[in-house]
């Protein structure tokens, strides 16, 4: 197959270099957009590197660096002797790239496959009765509203006040003007990236981490700096060294019940992280969405308890303890940043849904109660899944989670991306490790959620066991790992 004409690619790229930051990051961002929109469909063979680099008036090393980044992310694949291609669903690659969304997690939302048990997504699958009661109160209040357009870019005053009180009750004094209400935590992360990160800015993240943060950062052409994380927790020395050496524009952490590993950063280390950030003038974005889902008792104080609000930005949400369909999240930040974020949000949606905010204002005071109940249920399902894994797939290695919704599992052979495809063919959706890693690492890992009830988990384990028996990579190598890593 002949490669796509270089002039056509140049035409599609347009004013790709009109931005701030390294050229290879700007070029990678634009190529990523072309794949997302279908302008460069899966299976397209790209022009030879020298030819395209010459037409773009850049050094070949710039093009090679852009291609390498997109290969790590799973957008492109290199075939020996035949050049570079846009990856398709049958190609080897970290993310198993197909036309459309950049990540398999988002693809699952957009195109949910029939008959597949979803262990790739992590959120409650039904609203609790308390949500229906809260909406009844909200609707009653709405019946008396007059002279109100319903546009609150920073959030409805009642909800901002309720969230601020919830932080103050946790020993973190907060005023309503330090809260921005968002349409879920995902919008909160996207707004923070747009406000705090420019093209080429270094941004410090964990590897692995929540993929919903990686996608906005890649869209912003940020330079992702990785601090290793795993069953033993964050590599704190590497994190602090990266802050000092790279001077990131911001750092993103999931400090409590880390997604995907389920670990918790201890209090003394939290203090060190915040002190390092303050010393270098860097904000930390602490994702607390999972912080209420504890299997180990009370977790440590939030990162925000260890430093000034100017340096610790906190993201929260009701999606994991109430229901993902509620789409109510928030940002705790200093007043100046909240004001700037509200202006940015106003250009997107004029403010989040008011009935949902009024219902959320009824639920926020009940967060401790709702969290405990949800965590108790998840603990039962977590223990059931751990027992089934130890019994049916003893060669898989994992550490029981301290809380949250997912297990981080290492395969004894093969790789997570290709096994995820095998599992999908057997009716189970998993996330492969590279899709949660900023540089495509953790190739031998998969993330498994334990949100389903025990009967569904049993069916999922039966299917996973069958998928592993049929998976060619299961027979690669000879190393066998011992069940659970405690």
Q: Tell me roughly what share of residues is in helical segments.
A: 40-55%
CATH superfamily of the largest domain: Type I PLP-dependent aspartate aminotransferase-like (Major domain)
Secondary structure: number of strands = 15
Which sheet architecture does the biggest sheet show? 7 strands, mixed
**What is the CATH third-level topology name of the largest domain?**
Aspartate Aminotransferase, domain 2
The parts where pLDDT drops under 50 for at least 5 residues are: 89-102, 478-486
Question: How would you summarize the topology of this molecule?
Answer:
Layout: H1 6-13, H2 23-37, H3 49-56, H4 60-73, E1 76-79, E2 83-86, H5 104-110, E3 117-118, H6 129-142, H7 157-169, E4 179-182, H8 184-196, E5 202-207, H9 211-219, E6 223-228, H10 236-246, E7 250-253, H11 267-279, E8 284-287, E9 312-317, E10 329-332, H12 335-349, H13 354-363, H14 367-392, E11 397-398, E12 406-410, H15 416-425, E13 428-429, E14 431-432, E15 445-449, H16 454-470
Parallel strand pairs: 3-13, 5-6, 5-7, 7-8, 8-9
Antiparallel strand pairs: 1-2, 4-10, 9-10, 11-12, 12-15, 14-15
Helix pairs in contact: 1-3, 2-4, 3-4, 6-13, 7-13, 8-9, 10-11, 14-16, 15-16
